[in-house]
Amino acid sequence: MPIKTFRGQIKQGGIQSIPIHTNDGKMGYRIVKLQLLGSDLTGGTQESTVKIYSVDQTSADGDVNFSDQTLLAVGFYEQNASSGIVGDQVVVFDNVVFNQDITITHIEGGTTQPVNYHIELEQVSLDLNETTVATLKDIRNVTG
Prior knowledge:
The protein has 144 residues and is mainly β. Helix content is 11%, strand content 49%.
């Protein structure tokens, strides 16, 4: 299936919605790649935590809880020229199919620098049963 890409920059404490929903919900998506890159590569320090959720978020934080069923992916980017760390990142994402908008959040641990992100989503055609399950799961996560 085709790959859809999204890239951008998100500020410290930022929350961004990425619209992917369709009117009939018959197109699903699965995260296949999440990459992070600092905004200032000239030798500063940065420790960014980026999380992707299947539901809207009201705040951004650095706490990672893999028991949260709405958490689709987490990326951690570290850069510290004085200790020789340049562009080190850890990325974990779930192999779940979703068909509603996703939300990305960013917290920077030491400074107020933004971070750049690149997300690749694999498009997955859903039949009626899969559409119903994905939509109901998203509704349950919003209300529960």
